[in-house]
């Protein structure tokens, strides 16, 4: 089969209807904004029109360092990042930062103590990893209620000599999020913001470190973005591996080791898209409207049961069960037939999960809301 035949088969014969659009509600890797995906396709092979792809040039080449500088500048702009915070691009995604954070910060405490708020699976993993390097004190947790809410954090429960207080800003598995963050805690706040990074405005001045894996709102999996306040650099434990030392990344502008050049390229396009939407204020309004559309449909009847407490519901991860759980398999099968993909809940909790990150268009959410109504009508 020659290239023209293959292209013709992909497009379909003349008069053949276009394939029905599919919407990916997976928790990650997740949907890129469609304009970003188009630009990646158009610019990937010949990024600057000279026949070389962005992934075929050196990470020290001026063309790539220009992309890197643009990504940093755009992140500062759209996130409102204070000048005393560095922007780092590091390997290993968010899970690697569960080790990097204590390795870099826990030495600030004379007793090697840090505080953790446990609100779900990834918060638990962060706390367990932190315990490898010192005392990872649980300041508050919500496991007694099945992680269906964000627990109250009392300052009196924070260890007085804690190096930091770690929290997970949005809980992908259980569908909860922090609407406000602890105040008056003497320790710097550290946030794993992987599943809601750049989905809403965040006051970075209240945090010492914010980190996030790329794969939900930023770009391809495998890389993490870390913002770290200047005074928190230079405290790494002596045994900290070089590539986990934030000071090394800050001094080299993330170029001490070859970064994932493709991921940074996609991030730069994603940040341009966010800016062009009107910035985080506009993106946040859109995301709130998308989530409201789904929650209103889920709350309309008793056929569905959202699992998170109404005051703590995530905007990016809508988690629910069917009242008759024996229908869950049929629900997921029929949704897949309608082009609504990636809706199965996390393997540890089951149920249904619709992840509606920045890249999910409103039409996809409307299609899911319509399917929810029709399935309840037919099977309720």
Highlighted features:
single chain, about 375 residues, alpha/beta, 7-stranded mixed sheet, about 35% helix, disordered N terminus
Structure description:
- This protein is an alpha/beta fold.
- It is 35% helix and 16% strand.
- It contains 10 helices and 14 strands.
- Strands 2-10-9-8-5-3-4 form a 7-stranded mixed sheet, sandwiched between helices.
- The longest helix has 20 residues.
- The N terminus is likely disordered.
Mean pLDDT: 93
Write down how many β-strands occur, each being a DSSP E stretch of 2 or more residues: 14
Largest sheet: 7 strands, mixed
Give the overall shape.
globular
- What are the low-pLDDT stretches, counting only 5+ consecutive residues below 50? 1-18
End-to-end span in angstroms?
49 Å
| β-sheet strand percentage | 15-25%
- Secondary-structure element pattern, one letter each: HEHHEHEHEEEEEEEHHHEEHEEH
Number of helices: 10
Proportion of residues in helical segments: 25-40%
Structural class: alpha/beta
Radius of gyration of CA atoms, rounded to a whole number? 22 Å
Strand order of the largest sheet: 2-10-9-8-5-3-4
């Amino acid at each position: 089969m020659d290239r023209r035949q293959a292209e013709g088969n992909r497009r379909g014969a003349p008069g053949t209807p276009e394939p029905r659009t599919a919407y990916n509600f997976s928790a990650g890797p997740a949907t890129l904004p469609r304009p970003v995906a188009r630009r990646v396709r158009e610019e990937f092979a010949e990024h600057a029109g000279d026949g070389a792809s962005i992934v075929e040039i050196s990470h020290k080449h001026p063309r790539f360092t220009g992309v890197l500088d643009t990504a940093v500048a755009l992140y500062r702009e759209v996130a409102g990042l204070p000048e005393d915070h560095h922007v780092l691009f590091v390997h290993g995604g968010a899970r690697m930062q569960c080790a990097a954070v204590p390795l870099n910060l826990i030495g600030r405490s004379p007793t090697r103590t840090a505080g953790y708020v446990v609100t779900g699976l990834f918060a638990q993993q962060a706390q367990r990893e932190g315990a490898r390097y010192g005392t990872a004190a649980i300041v508050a947790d919500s496991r007694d209620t099945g992680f269906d809410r964000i627990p109250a954090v009392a300052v009196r429960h924070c260890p007085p000599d804690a190096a930091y207080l770690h929290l997970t800003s949005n809980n992908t598995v259980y569908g909860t999020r922090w609407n406000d963050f602890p105040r008056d805690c003497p320790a710097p706040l550290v946030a794993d913001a992987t599943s809601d990074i750049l989905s809403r405005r965040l006051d970075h001045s209240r945090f010492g470190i914010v980190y996030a894996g790329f794969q939900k709102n930023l770009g391809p999996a495998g890389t993490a973005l870390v913002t770290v306040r200047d005074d928190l650099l230079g405290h790494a434990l002596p045994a900290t591996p070089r590539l986990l030392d934030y000071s090394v990344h800050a001094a080299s502008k993330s170029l001490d080791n070859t970064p994932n050049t493709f991921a940074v390229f996609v991030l730069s396009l994603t940040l341009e898209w966010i800016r062009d939407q009107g910035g985080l204020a506009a993106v946040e309004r859109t995301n709130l409207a998308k989530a409201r559309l789904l929650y209103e449909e889920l709350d309309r009847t008793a056929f569905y049961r959202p699992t998170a407490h109404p005051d703590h519901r995530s905007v990016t991860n809508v988690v629910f069960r069917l009242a008759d759980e024996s229908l869950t398999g049929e629900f997921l099968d029929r949704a897949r037939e309608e082009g609504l993909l990636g809706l199965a809940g996390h393997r540890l909790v089951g149920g249904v999960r619709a992840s509606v990150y920045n890249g999910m268009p409103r039409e996809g959410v409307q299609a899911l809301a319509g399917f929810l109504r029709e399935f309840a009508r037919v099977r309720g």
